[in-house]
Amino acid sequence: MSFSADARGTLDFDGEPVGELATRWQLAAVHAFGAVGSTLDVAHALAPAATSGTLILADEQTAGRGRHGRRWASAAHAGVWLSLIERPTDARALDVLALRCGLYAAEVLDDLAGATVRVKWPNDLYVGDRKLAGTLIETRWRGTAPEWVAIGFGLNVTAPDLDSGIGLAAGADRLAAPDRVVP
Fold first, then answer.
1. Where are the beta strands (DSSP E) in 48-144?
2. Which of 48-80 are b and which e, b meaning 16 or more Cβ less than 10 Å from the residue's Cβ?
3. How many CB atoms lie within 10 A of CB 15?
4. Residue 176 needs a FRET pair 20 to 30 A away by CA distance; which of 71, 108, 109, 170 works?
5. What's residue 25's pLDDT?
6. How far apart are the two ends of the chain, measured CA to CA in Å?
């Protein structure tokens, strides 16, 4: 994924103006960044004033995180790093949200991966024995009701320098992944 600005200062994502992505993906708003610590951190900072359907998209994460506080860096131009803010009305739906997001993403990414994508419980997507993507869902509560949920998603477009990682199939269009996953 690449962000650049034209002569007018309009930010684009792989040639698509960021301002048009909200319409394309049927979202309330898209906030794009070159580099952030974590898209989830940005989501939580924006969430108190953001509407449901606000997406945070970054070209690079310098302090990405996963379950159990695991940290990593997500290289620039190497993947899709995003978080979506939603405002659920039924707390019971949160019990299976991570699994549902993982199953959906696995299904829509099969053809871009060039192989079957499977869910490794509870939040990773694998092709064979190598990790392709991961989801992390964090909820903020007001009493016993969820105030917002931030759905984090990271996808390797190109294979990372790890034997345990894999990217999308050669020639896969990076914009095609969020085109399928986000809506």
1. 54-65, 71-74, 79-86, 117-120, 124-127, 130-142
2. eebeebbbbbbbbbeebbeeeeeebebbbebbb
3. 8
4. 71
5. 95
6. 18
